[in-house]
Write a structure and sequence with these properties.
It is a single chain. The chain is of the alpha/beta class. The chain is about 40% helix and about 15% strand. Strands 4-3-2-5-6-9-7 form a seven-stranded mixed sheet. The mean pLDDT is about 95. The protein binds S-adenosylmethionine (SAM). S-adenosylmethionine (SAM) binds near residues 76 and 101.
Length: about 290
């Protein structure tokens, strides 16, 4: 059975009485070469378990199951589960989980796999929820080796942007704290059934085993990034004073200047390392201020 053949996908969907559900971002891949390339891309050389988010009709799951020891596939659409059991019946190394990934205890689900090591994520993500899923995976603290996902090209531009560029934003600065992101290849809308309104790009995030940035106060570090971008058009002292209420604007300006930046600087020019240094200075100032 060719799970990338449009006719076959339509026939199986009909056989199980299903239609493509827009609200779940169901755009299934119809190119065998692309599916194989995505499956290969999540291999770090020691990948044993792959977590797939959104199995659809099982085309990527099938490719992953052929290449890796174990695949855990989470699929929100209850109707697709009997279909997936049928299309993936030959693979004994696939565990299907009918759940919303945003409400799933992934640490518990993959507990033994994380202990063994070699866990990667591989997915053709639903567009409506791409960024929340990525933020959840990154912030989970779970030891994924890499996260390989197909996402909307515009989002890929944002994730891989350099500091100071138009596409650079809080998500970029946040992601760069956890790992490095690389665009692998583009996939045109015509390679999906039904075709989405946007083009897609496959990106791979290689997670740091040992993070290069070690902020003194991680929560404050995240708050500093968020505040800097929430008021994008404002200068950094103004933006920070709206989000960090513990210090007056003059002290925030002092912190910025002591890191070597002009008081007129904008947050979008600061790298993740710059935000780490800045939040450390702010953290010291807050502590000193509190002790006065
Ligand atoms: N992997 C298949 C492929 O490449 O053809 C399907 C990809 S399709 C873009 C996204 C899949 O994610 C759909 O099957 C959809 O039902 C599922 N999905 C959407 N939201 C989800 C969620 N919150 N948790 C788990 N799966 C989800």
């Amino acid at each position: 059975m060719d799970l990338c053949d449009a006719r076959t996908i339509k026939d199986i969907m009909t056989m199980f009485g299903l239609t493509f559900r827009k609200e779940f971002g169901q755009n299934f891949l119809t190119d065998k070469g692309v599916v194989a390339d995505i499956a290969v891309s999540c291999d770090t050389g020691s990948t044993k378990t792959v977590l797939e988010i959104g199995a659809g009709c099982g085309s990527l799951t099938h490719e992953l199951a052929q290449r890796y020891e174990k695949v855990v596939a989470i699929e929100i659409d209850r109707g697709l589960i009997p279909l997936l059991k049928y299309t993936l019946s030959e693979h004994k190394n696939v565990e299907l989980v009918n759940a919303d990934v945003m409400k799933t205890d992934i640490g518990g689900l993959l507990h033994e796999d994380f202990e063994r090591g070699g866990v990667s994520v591989c997915a053709n993500l639903p567009y409506y929820i791409t960024t929340p899923i990525l933020l959840e995976l990154l912030g989970s603290g779970l030891p994924f080796d890499c996260i390989t996902v197909m996402i909307q090209s515009e989002v890929a531009d944002r994730l891989c942007a350099s500091a100071g560029s138009r596409d650079y934003g809080s998500v970029t600065a946040y992601l760069n704290y956890f790992g490095t992101c690389k665009k692998l290849f583009n996939v045109p809308a015509g390679k999906f059934l039904p075709p989405p309104k946007v083009d897609s790009t496959v990106v791979r995030i290689d997670m740091y085993k040992d993070k290069p940035y070690k902020p003194k106060d991680e929560k404050l570090f995240f708050r500093t990034i968020r505040a800097a971008f929430e008021q994008r058009r404002k200068t950094l002292p103004n933006a920070l004073s709206a989000g960090i209420s513990e210090l007056p604007k003059e002290m925030l300006t002092e912190a910025i200047v002591s890191c070597g930046f002009a008081p007129t600087v904008r947050g979008e020019t600061l790298s993740t390392g710059d935000f780490c240094r800045l939040s450390d200075v702010i953290s010291d100032m807050i502590a000193e201020n509190g002790n006065k």
